[in-house]
Write a structure and sequence with these properties.
Length: 705
């Protein structure tokens, strides 16, 4: 990050120009991933209200940002005092800087044995070295499964490593949408999680800016459509993007390089490299049948290499699929326990399985499952991932599912998937309880698992997030409504402590669908609506978050859950703060405070009442500050601060001190603000809250400027 006037976007423009004002709002909006970013956005809303003399709703589109920039421009040029206030604010804004350090080389390792593809390699070389002429360097490698399109991309990337010193980025598009893929690519460029913008548009813009002056390779593997790929393209002159797909992608303006089967001579050469000359010589009698059955598919040839002297049970028929044939040949050689685990683990499209999940699917123990997974990987029936797990190729999983249905029967197949889902449910419940033991939102259902501390619980939820999302889908397909909602509720600590909102959205939507259909008007439905609203708000999808927040309040009230009802109304107020609708925010916080009065001394949530009221006092102070009612804001914030100081909550103490400091600063009370900032900084020293500390440093600079 960099200050707005330290050589960034404002180095060539006045801080009072329309372009500079718009850039400040864009910078604040794109930096909302952490608590400090949210505070800065809220502060910007209060500044706009002060400058405009009326409420101005927060912008959600580039056109709305431009309109607000024009409004601010006209006001500051008409009033020198407002111009000074704006300049002080703008100088304290950190503009998200494109990442300039060296990116990582993240391509999967290319296989040692590689042959043919000379024509494709020449075309790739030519595309990388041609005169740019304003045309992005974009290549589509396409061919059927197992034909080696991904391997070709990895091999070319390894050959051209010197051409791309600023990074070789990789994204597997099989299971992720563009939002989490962009986050992963930004991480590979060196951006920390707290600096990744929450909104999709801001992520895409930062990704393009960060690649603008780089010599980098981007490989987008297993693409399904041009629409999926389009937001991930960077038009920089020295960036080459390779898109890998099974079929030509209609609508993608790229150099298309079809990848077909290896010729007979190259297929034999690859087999020789894989198995060795003695093995190929010994298989002279069976080699023609093996080559025919493999039909030039590198995957089939690799699978066949260990069994050259074992003739296929059935000859290859005209037009037969070499991958399916290779999978069947490998499967027939498995021991019964390995074959059973292969079948039952492949029944559902799990993103990546570990030994524990495989053991649940097959009804065995984790030690045996780990051994069998290694055996399946050796037979190329599953692929190891970077984190020590395993996944299926699509065609291989389809074979496993078909074979399981025919061999094990529907009942056994359903039981295997149910056991796997149940295992993920127990994991999620135990991890959620460890991560957030004090929260009434965490389900209290029993589980045999446990985690040693908060960090371990959050880490377990984060590591399994894609599988937990898939478990929600599986439970929904099976009509297991209780598991759908329990899994959804167990995701709350991950949302609150680590984000992952774009990954979790499909599971939360499924949870809300299920709750509305099967548990309407209950606290369960209210909790899931609140969770979905929270993630939508964090992703700056405010129009979608609002009806979910209202539904949460409706269902919590209908379910007679007073604490949950107050929390849902409080959340609506927080959403209004993000939208710069400060009057409505204050009204919502007031309503939540009144709802809490309905909790009696012996009722659920009674023990949490003092803290809940202190949080609402803080929120009311924030809303009053946005309204320009500084004296009232200070009164509310002082009350909240007294509680948090007495309770020893360092982080909430620091957050309230920050709110007070900003309120004093807005009133020109620089000395008082500086004292509060220093106390907040001291309170956060042991909290590992670097982003908040950076925000405090910015506020202190405003005190001095």
């Amino acid at each position: 990050m960099r200050r707005a006037d330290d050589g960034g976007v404002h180095a060539v423009m006045d801080l009072l120009s329309t372009g500079a004002i718009g850039a400040v709002f864009g910078a604040v909006g794109s930096g909302m991933a952490g608590e400090a970013g949210k505070l800065a956005w809220e502060s910007a809303g209060g500044m706009v209200r002060r400058l405009a003399g009326r409420e101005v709703t927060a912008p959600a589109t580039p056109d709305e940002v431009h309109a607000i920039a024009r409004l601010v421009h006209d006001r500051v040029h008409a009033d020198p005092e407002l111009a000074l206030a704006w300049t002080r604010f703008a100088r304290g804004v950190r503009v998200p800087a494109p990442v300039t350090g060296p990116g990582r080389h993240c391509l999967p390792v290319a296989p040692r044995s590689f042959t043919d593809r000379q024509d494709a390699l020449r075309l790739l070389d030519k595309e990388a070295t041609r005169a740019f002429g304003g045309r992005p360097r974009l290549v589509l490698l396409h061919g059927p499964e197992g034909i080696g399109t991904s391997t070709l991309a990895f091999h070319w990337g390894a050959r051209q490593a010197a051409r791309f010193p600023d990074g070789q980025l990789y994204a597997d598009l099989r299971a992720l949408g563009p939002e989490p893929v962009l986050a992963a690519l930004l991480r590979q460029l060196g951006l920390p999680d707290e600096d990744i913008p929450p909104s999709f548009a801001d992520r895409a813009a930062l990704f393009r800016r960060s690649l603008a002056d780089r010599r980098a390779l981007v490989v987008l593997d297993h693409a399904r459509s041009a629409a999926q790929v389009q937001p991930l393209l960077a038009p920089a002159p020295d960036v080459v993007t390779l898109v890998v797909a099974r079929h030509p992608l209609i609508g993608l303006d790229a150099l298309r390089i079809p990848v077909g089967p290896l010729g007979h001579r190259d297929a034999k050469r690859l087999l020789t490299e894989l198995a060795g000359k003695p093995a190929v010589s010994a298989a002279r009698a069976t080699l023609p049948a093996v080559l025919d059955r493999c039909a030039g598919s590198p995957y089939a040839l690799r699978a066949a290499a260990p069994r050259l002297t074992t003739p296929p049970e059935t000859p290859a028929g005209p037009g037969s699929d070499p991958v399916s044939a290779a999978v069947e040949d490998s499967y027939r050689l498995l021991a019964p326990d390995a074959a059973r685990l292969y079948r039952l683990c492949g029944l559902y499209d799990w993103p990546a399985l570990d030994a524990a999940a495989a053991a649940r699917a097959a009804g065995t123990d984790a030690t045996d499952a780990a051994r069998l997974l290694d055996e399946l990987a050796g037979a190329l029936l599953i692929e190891p991932t970077d984190d020590g797990r395993y996944r299926y190729r699509p065609a291989v999983r389809a074979h496993a599912a078909r074979t399981a249905a025919a061999t094990d029967g529907i009942a056994a197949c359903s039981a295997a998937v149910s056991r796997t889902v149940e295992g993920y449910l127990h994991l999620a419940l135990a991890a959620a309880r460890a991560a957030l033991p004090e929260s009434w939102r965490v389900p209290s259902a029993t589980t045999p698992l446990s985690y040693e501390n908060r960090g371990a619980g959050v880490a377990a939820l984060a590591a399994e997030a894609p599988n937990l999302v898939q478990a929600v889908h599986a439970a929904e397909e099976f009509g297991d409504w209780d598991t759908v909602v329990l899994l959804g509720q167990a995701l709350w600590p991950l949302q609150l402590k680590a984000g992952h909102h774009d990954i979790l959205l499909p599971a939360l939507r499924a949870g809300v669908r299920t709750a509305d259909a099967h548990f309407p008007g209950t606290r369960t439905a209210g909790a899931l609506h609140a969770q979905l609203a929270h993630s939508l708000m964090e992703l700056r999808r405010w129009d979608e978050a609002e009806p979910e927040a209202l539904a949460a309040a409706r269902d919590e009230r209908a379910g007679g859950h007073v604490r949950g009802h107050a929390s849902a109304v409080e959340f609506l107020g927080l959403l209004r703060l993000r939208q710069w609708r400060f009057d409505e925010a204050y009204a919502a916080f007031d309503e939540a405070y009144r709802i809490l009065d309905g909790i009696g001394p012996a009722d659920e949530g009674a023990a949490d009442l003092p803290r809940a009221r202190a949080l609402l006092e803080r929120h009311r102070g924030r809303a009053l500050r946005g309204l320009g009612r500084r004296a009232e804001a200070v009164e509310r914030l002082d009350r909240a601060l007294a509680f948090f100081r007495a309770s020893g909550e360092a982080y909430n103490t620091a957050r309230t001190l920050t709110d007070l400091a900003e309120t004093r600063l807005n009133g020109g009370e620089f000395t008082a603000a500086r004292t509060l900032i220093d106390e907040a900084t001291a309170a956060l020293r042991d909290e590992q809250a670097e982003q908040h500390l950076e925000y405090l440093r910015l506020l202190r600079e405003r005190c001095d400027g």
